[in-house]
Design a protein that fits this description.
This protein is mostly helical and about 120 residues long. It has four helices and no strands. It is flat, with a radius of gyration of 27 Å.
Length: about 120
Amino acid sequence: MRFLLRMAFWLTVILALLPSGGSQPTPTLNVSAIEAMSAATATVTDVQSFCDRQRDACTVGSQAAVAIGQRAQAGAKMLYEYLSQHLGSHDGGAGVAPPVVAQGGTDRSADVRPRF
């Protein structure tokens, strides 16, 4: 539940910082910092007791979050496999060979030369 709240908070911050993209001027707010902090504190207090008041909503929300997480994981796996197949090595593994190190096992720049 805290993860969802953090995610919602940061998404809101990011969306608030993005440019509006429109030619209309944004309205000015007449809210002081103290009023904003008071409203934020009240909101956090209300959210913390939400699951006590709405147990069914929290249960359904947590089940939905798990289902969405599983679908996102499966989708990411499918995307990874697709990209690995289509954007992987096209030369059959004949890419750049690892450098050859001269005798003694040292890795000095003068001793290292690529294999062709």
